Amino acid sequence: MRKNVNKQALTAKNIHKFITEVGMLKRVVRSGWSVLGIKNAESVAEHSFRCAVIGYVLAHLEKARVYKVLLMTLFNDLAEARITDLHKMAQRYINIDSAEDRAFCQQAGYLPRKLELELVKIRKEYRKQKTIESIIARDADILECLIQAREYFQHGFSQARHFMKKAPAFLKTKSAKKLWKTAKNTDISNWWFKLGEFRR
């Protein structure tokens, strides 16, 4: 009985370590935006949250398995809690895929074996980009970046337009392409201006 208590305590401690480490993503800034001189740029956690929301919607629109897409989008950038978010310039000198995979596997190792195996498996699927779920998750990531670039651009950061030039060509699903077409032609304040209209 004593042995089981110790095992449970160890499991709880490791899960707590994992959750605490996930919290680091709230403090890791998305480096591509900071290079543009954007102060108080979004964090990795902020990006991951909206990426998951977009993934949820796209999965439904494309009639894919929502749970798998949510897992991919929520945990895709987990490794950045350890290696930070490295912009494209830094990635010229570092094998980013290898570094992320190593960090991710070690992080997942904090969790009970069943959860660890699920996350490692889902990450491998995402990396291969063969299934509709992995393609949707990647589209969600790209679309979130595009929408964020559009928002920064409308807030006066003119250099953000560079992020909107090549990225759309990497979108693969019809739903993601359609959403981007709408987003790039819509004022970002439109939704709340409409809600804020005076009503008598």
Can you give a write-up of this model?
- The chain has 200 residues and is an all-alpha fold.
- The chain has one domain: Hypothetical protein af1432.
- The protein is 68% helix and 0% strand.
- The chain has 12 helices and no strands.
- The chain has helices at residues 2-23, 31-35, 44-61, 66-75, 80-83, 88-91, 96-108, 113-128, 132-154, 163-166, 174-184, 190-195.
- Helix 4 crosses helix 8.
- The radius of gyration is 19 Å and the shape is globular.
- It starts with a helix and ends in a 5-residue tail after the last helix.
- 30% of the residues are buried.
- The model has no long low-confidence stretch (mean pLDDT 92).
Alpha-carbon distance between the two ends:
69 Å
Tell me, what's the shape? globular
Give start-end ranges of low-pLDDT stretches: none
Full CATH superfamily name: Hypothetical protein af1432
Q: How many strands in all? A: 0
- The string of secondary-structure elements, in order, is HHHHHHHHHHHH
Question: Helix amount, in percent?
Answer: 55-70%
Kindly give the count of domains.
1
Number of helices: 12
CATH class: Mainly Alpha
- Summarize the biggest pleated sheet: none
What is the CA-atom radius of gyration, in angstroms?
19 Å
Structural class: mainly alpha
CATH fold-level assignment: Hypothetical protein af1432
Classify the beta-strand content into a percent band: under 5%
The whole-number mean of residue pLDDT values reads 92
| Name given to the CATH architecture | Orthogonal Bundle
